[in-house]
């Protein structure tokens, strides 16, 4: 089976390395015939080109692997490939999150596969597990840690006492975080992943806009010290819940007691949990990024195409669900700067205390709807507000 | 597709319930046409029988689900079903562990599937994940917590201060442990599961006899109190390691620091870890037993047969590996009664202390070969010896 790869960064070269070097005999059936790169001065292999149509219009290519990132021209290339009867495997959560339904529909019309395991949770067989569970069960909840960079930052703040900016810089120096880190630390990356996860888990189309998202940019050393004293650990978490025909999703910092599995997911690892009607709770843990783990997820998708195994997990996203932001609720830790904000918080505050030079409260139980409205009010006067929900 | 079920205990009735009640449209293709039970006075459904040949000789039945337990006549029924061209799905770790290679070979000769996901880790998609990882990677290590009863006992000793016999009795009253609990607390159940896991992970045939196995029967409240003070947690763990053409397996109590994932696997949950050459470490967590989770694993196998998806994960167990008991090593906690045993331990003891009325040491790093020879010597004079390896 002939493969064309769009993009040859970390993940693209991981795919190349695995297919070239794995001793497994299945690999003999896979041939990387062309690779699209951006810069003609970086051509190092005979089969590299800077001309996308050399891949997209080559009738001999069966599978296009899209690992370019970004929305355009990734969207156009994927659509062109699918429409010309090529299978597509993508690791690009930005474009998959936006166009999952359209890609899936187009693939179905042209009788080819559109697979994207590597777009969420790197090497963890997470999306396929969701599809597998759905063959029998209704899934009522999915949640987890799906961003390695933010987990690396939080883990090192807890374990080694770094403050946020120190460890962010270290992560950037190590190549774990990008020079513009917003997507990772503000939860945008996770929001994209959660649209993919929950669309799959609930058989529907969930849009990024419906997911309230808050990151860890404003977390401080004093927040962390307070959590440590309470034997709780902070993680940046994606959650989606379904109840009958209602759903609710959010991305926000969550506090776990130290004796939970999630609290002990260290360094840049990821974990995903799901709850199914007969299977109960399952958790899947592993490397959520990196050249070989993510490359591995792509090669697994390619093998599923080669063996036609992907046809055993068909998907249509055809359920209609309504957003109901009362489905997720919890107590919140809120840390704020202006004493006047206490007035806004007076009806929900269960416990108030000073945290170094700031103020903090623990709230009563609030729904996402209630907490969102509260944070909107607070944000008018607070610039470094931080909050986290108790699990 | 027509299904015959051999046995209608907890798991058999779980399969029946899932196929009858799941709203998933795939289930409409599955029909339970006959059920074998033992006692004719317990016939409650029209399609129940006490005559095995009514299932095994029925040409209309496509799949036999074997959930009887025990070695005989389960072995004969499975062989008869396979030889007459029926697919077989089994949850019976005792018979699968002993005859995995023969069943697999016979299934291959008759062009049918032999699947046994439910025999290890209940509802966790663990064996299929191993097979999937093996499509690309070499697996160098598998380990985990695969017995819910012993984990329930240890968890409650740690969390609630029970002593061993108290919590064992409670587990028996709740139906979590059998009236003869040896298989669960002496590691026999896990030994069977580890032969299945490591045979799959390493593509070979690993026999129960090659796996040194020690359980938790002799653990005391003072052992647990000592571990708690050290911030470590005790789990009963199965481990297999492969290095080139050597392997080493063992089942023994293992000590994890409290900030690890394993230390926080609570109640009767299971977890399995594997390390693959490109995927790195993956962990899979969930309910390792119970009517619906185990029933779910069986129905997943049936769907894989229905969709022919099982053919995408073929297996032959055809690698030849040698046992090398130097591959696994660690420091040990050893608690013993007779002061004279100190003489046997003097060359390996790194730290000696009194533990209530007993004696305890922490050893230097020992290989499985060394520790086994030591425990054999000690067992001559010690009747309640307890030991655990530091992870």
From TrEMBL, chains A, B:
Domain Homoserine dehydrogenase catalytic span(s) in chain numbering: 125-303
Segments crossing the lipid bilayer: none
Major enzyme class: oxidoreductase
The entry's keywords: Amino-acid biosynthesis, Methionine biosynthesis, NADP, Oxidoreductase, Threonine biosynthesis
Gene Ontology MF terms: homoserine dehydrogenase activity
Mitochondrion is among the record's keywords: no
Top-level taxon: Bacteria
Pfam families xref list: Homoserine_dh, NAD_binding_3
Pathway the protein acts in: Amino-acid biosynthesis; L-methionine biosynthesis via de novo pathway; L-homoserine from L-aspartate: step 3/3; Amino-acid biosynthesis; L-threonine biosynthesis; L-threonine from L-aspartate: step 3/5
UniProt keyword Transmembrane helix, yes or no: no
Reactions it catalyzes: L-homoserine + NADP(+) = L-aspartate 4-semialdehyde + NADPH + H(+)
Domain Aspartate/homoserine dehydrogenase NAD-binding: 7-117
InterPro entries: Asp/hSer_DH_NAD-bd, HDH_cat, HDH_CS, NAD(P)-bd_dom_sf
EC identifiers of the protein: 1.1.1.3
Family membership: Belongs to the homoserine dehydrogenase family.
Stated name of the protein: Homoserine dehydrogenase
Organism: Sedimentibacter acidaminivorans
Taxonomic lineage from the root: Bacteria, Bacillati, Bacillota, Tissierellia, Sedimentibacter
């Amino acid at each position: 089976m002939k493969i064309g790869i769009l993009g040859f960064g970390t993940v693209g070269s991981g795919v190349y390395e695995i297919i070239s070097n794995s001793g497994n005999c299945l690999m003999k059936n896979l041939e990387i015939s062309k690779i699209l790169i951006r810069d003609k001065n970086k051509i190092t292999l005979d089969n590299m080109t800077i001309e996308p149509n050399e891949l997209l219009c080559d009738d001999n290519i069966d599978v296009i692997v899209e690992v370019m990132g970004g929305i355009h021209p990734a969207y156009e290339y994927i659509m062109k490939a699918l429409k010309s009867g090529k299978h597509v495997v993508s690791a690009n959560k930005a474009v998959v999150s936006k166009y999952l339904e359209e890609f899936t529909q187009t693939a179905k019309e042209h009788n080819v596969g559109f697979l994207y395991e590597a777009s969420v949770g790197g090497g963890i067989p997470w999306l396929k597990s969701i599809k597998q569970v759905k063959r029998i069960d209704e899934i009522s909840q999915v949640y987890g840690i799906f961003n390695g960079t933010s987990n690396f930052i939080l883990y090192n703040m807890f374990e080694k006492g770094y403050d946020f900016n120190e460890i962010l810089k270290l992560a950037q120096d190590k190549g774990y975080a990008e020079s513009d880190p917003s997507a990772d630390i503000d939860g945008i990356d996770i929001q994209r992943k959660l649209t993919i996860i929950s669309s799959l888990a609930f058989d529907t189309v969930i849009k990024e806009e419906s997911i309230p998202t808050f990151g860890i940019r404003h977390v401080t050393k004093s927040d962390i010290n307070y959590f440590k004293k309470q034997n709780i650990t902070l993680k940046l978490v994606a959650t989606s819940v379904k109840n009958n025909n209602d759903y609710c999703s959010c991305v926000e910092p969550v506090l776990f007691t130290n004796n939970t599995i999630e609290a002990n997911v260290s360094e840049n690892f990821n974990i995903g949990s799901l709850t199914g009607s007969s299977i109960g709770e399952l958790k899947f843990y592993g490397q959520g990024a990196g050249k070989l783990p993510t490359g591995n997820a792509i090669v697994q998708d390619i093998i599923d195409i080669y063996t036609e195994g992907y046809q055993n997990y068909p998907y249509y996203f055809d359920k209609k669900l309504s957003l109901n932001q009362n489905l997720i609720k919890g107590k919140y830790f809120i840390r704020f700067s202006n004493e006047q904000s206490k007035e806004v918080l007076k009806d929900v505050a269960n416990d108030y205390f000073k945290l170094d030079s700031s103020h903090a409260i623990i709230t009563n139980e609030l729904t996402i709807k209630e907490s969102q409205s509260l944070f909107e009010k607070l944000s008018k006067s607070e610039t470094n507000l931080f909050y986290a929900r108790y699990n």
